[in-house]
Design a protein that fits this description.
Distance between the termini: 43 Å
Number of helices: 12
Order of helices and strands: HEEHHEHHEHEHEHEEHHHEEH
Mean pLDDT: 83
Shape: globular
Helix content: 25-40%
Structural class: alpha/beta
Radius of gyration: 21 Å
Length: about 325
C-alpha cells in the first residue's frame, strides 16, 4: 500500500516547485490537472529488492490518460495510445488496467472503435483493460463554441441534435455507434462517463443524465454480459474556471489553445506563477441554494457529473 502511494501520479507542482501550474485559460487546466502530472520513481532506485517488488506498480496502479484534442502540449503521444504503450515493456503493458480519455463528442463516434480494437488483448498490445473513464469537458461538446444545445445518444451512429432526441428521430440502435464498441474490450469491469458543462446548461445535462441511467452497454452479448448503470457510482459537483466565452474567442481567432497556452506558460513571470498556484481548480460539493464566490467577469461556474456502469450478467429477457 505504501509503495502504491509513493508511485501515484501527482500534479508535479505539489512536490516540485520548479514545475509551474498551467495557465488558467488552457482547456486542459482543470480539477486534478492543474499542472503536469508526474510519477516519482525514486523509490524504485532504492535497492534491487524494492525494484523487484514494485517495478510494475507505476503502470499497474495509475490511470493512463489521453486527450483526443486540446491536451497538454508537453504530453507525449497524448492522442495515440498505441505509440504511448509501444514505449513500455511487455510486462508493463500487461500490468495496465485503467485508462482515461478526455474526448470530444464527435471523436467518440469516429475514433473510439479504433482505439478499443487496438487495446484488445488479442491485438498483440497485451493490455487487459478493467476500468475505462470517458470525460467530456465543457469544451468537448459538438459546436460548444457556437453555444449549441447539449445532446448525446451512444447508440446512434450519426451525430444527433437535442431536438432529434426529443422527437425520437432515428432512435433504433446502430451497431456502429460508440455505445456498442465495448465488445472489443470484453474483460472490462467498469465504465465511468464524466460529463461537464457550464452551470447555465445544467438542465440540459441533467436531461442527458436521466436518459443515461437507462443505458446498457454490451460486452459479450451472446453470454449476457453488459455494463449496467450503478446508482451509487453517480456524483455531481461544481468548479470555477475561466469563462467559456474566453475560450470561444481563442477558437474564433483560429488559435489552438494548447499551443497558445504553452507560449504563455513559458513566458510567465514569478508573480503569475504564484497567482496560478493560488487559483488551482478543484471540485466542490453541489449543495442546493449554496452560492459560490467568484468574479463573473473573468470566471464561470461549471457543472460536472460522473456516472458509473459495472459488469453484470443479465438474463435474455432483461437485455432482449
Amino acid at each position: 500500500m505504501i509503495y502504491m502511494f509513493v508511485v501515484a501520479s501527482t500534479p508535479a507542482h505539489v512536490f516540485d516547485p520548479t514545475t509551474h501550474p498551467y495557465p488558467r485559460q488552457a482547456l486542459y487546466c482543470r480539477p486534478g490537472f492543474p499542472s503536469p502530472r508526474r510519477i516519482s520513481v525514486s523509490l524504485l532506485q532504492t535497492c534491487q529488492r524494492i525494484y523487484t517488488e514494485a517495478a510494475l506498480l507505476p503502470a499497474a496502479s495509475n490511470t493512463h490518460t489521453f486527450w483526443s484534442c486540446y491536451g497538454p502540449p508537453h504530453a507525449r503521444h497524448s492522442a495515440d495510445p498505441a505509440k504511448y504503450f509501444a514505449r513500455m515493456t511487455a510486462p508493463q503493458r500487461e500490468a495496465v488496467s485503467k485508462l482515461q480519455f478526455f474526448t470530444q463528442e464527435p471523436y467518440l463516434k469516429s475514433g473510439l472503435r479504433g482505439i478499443l480494437q487496438s487495446l484488445n488483448y488479442s491485438s498483440g498490445m497485451g493490455i487487459c483493460l478493467k476500468k475505462l473513464t470517458l470525460t467530456l469537458r465543457h469544451s468537448d461538446w459538438l459546436y460548444w463554441e457556437l453555444n449549441w444545445s447539449l445532446a448525446m445518444d451512444p447508440f446512434r451512429g450519426q451525430t444527433v441534435t437535442a431536438t432529434e432526441i426529443e422527437e425520437g428521430e432515428g432512435s433504433e440502435v446502430d451497431e456502429k455507434a460508440w455505445g456498442t464498441q465495448f465488445v472489443y474490450v470484453p474483460a472490462l469491469e467498469e465504465l465511468v462517463i464524466q460529463l461537464e458543462t457550464v452551470m447555465d446548461k445544467r438542465d440540459q445535462l441533467d436531461a442527458i443524465v436521466r436518459m443515461a441511467r437507462t443505458w446498457r452497454f454490451p460486452l459479450v452479448r451472446e453470454e449476457g454480459w453488459f455494463l449496467v448503470y450503478e446508482e451509487e457510482g453517480e456524483r455531481a459537483c461544481r468548479w470555477i474556471g475561466v469563462t467559456e466565452e474566453a475560450m470561444r474567442e481563442e477558437v474564433h481567432r483560429g488559435w489552438w489553445p494548447g499551443q497558445v497556452s504553452r507560449k504563455e506558460w513559458e513566458a510567465a513571470d514569478a508573480e503569475e506563477w504564484a497567482q496560478r498556484a493560488r487559483s488551482v481548480p478543484k471540485f466542490m460539493p453541489l449543495r442546493a441554494g449554496e452560492e459560490v464566490d467568484y468574479d463573473p467577469s473573468i470566471d464561470q461556474e461549471f457543472y460536472f457529473v460522473s456516472m458509473t456502469w459495472k459488469r453484470h450478467r443479465m438474463l435474455p429477457a432483461e437485455h432482449g
